[in-house]
Amino acid sequence: MHPNDFKERLEDETIVAAIREAEARTSGEIRVFVTRHSPRDPMAEARRQFFKLRMHQTPERNGVLLYFAPRSRRFAIVGDDGIHQRCGQEFWDRTAVAMSGLLKANEWTGAIVAGIREAGVELARHFPKPSGDLNDLPDSVVRD
User: Fold this and answer.
1) 54: left (phi over 0), alpha (psi -120 to 50) or beta
2) CB 63, CB 55: distance < 8 Å
3) The whole model's pTM is what?
């Protein structure tokens, strides 16, 4: 997959709509980040972006970042301490496997939406949206 193909074929409106739908049921925050770089360690870079995007500052520590490095054909999912403690590593592993199949089939937007939906279900289960909850972070796809 050529990195430009990945970036150009992403349907931002569909991704943003999936984020908004997921966040409508939870106080959690979900973000998507696509890089043009080829990090040696995508998980380490995803964690770095997680903090750079201030996702660790959600009140309940329930942010989730889906990080994509199309040039190296890799991705990572980072969940903050609050959600990770409740769902465990097995949840993230299952979500990554489901997304991998869609990515291999070149269903890039579908893979991202699947990850968002899985994260949204888990966030809603552990962090239901209280009345008056504010959207703490933007819902856009972040690119560098």
Assistant:
1) left
2) yes
3) 0.93
Residue with tokens 């931002």: 12
Backbone angles phi, psi at 55, to 5 degrees: -75, -20
Contact in structure between 28 and 127 (CB atoms under 8 Å):
yes
Task: Identify whether the C-beta of residue 31 lies closer than 8 Å to the C-beta of residue 22.
Answer: no
Q: Are the beta carbons of 129 and 24 closer than 8 angstroms?
A: yes
**Fold entry, domain 3-143:** Diaminopimelate Epimerase; Chain A, domain 1 (3.10.310)
**CA 115 – CA 32 distance, rounded (Å):** 10
Domain ranges of the chain: 3-143
User: Which of residues 58 and 134 earns the better pLDDT score?
Assistant: 58
- Tell me how long the chain is: 144
For tokens 């193909």, what's the residue?
5
CB 113 within 8 A of CB 21: no
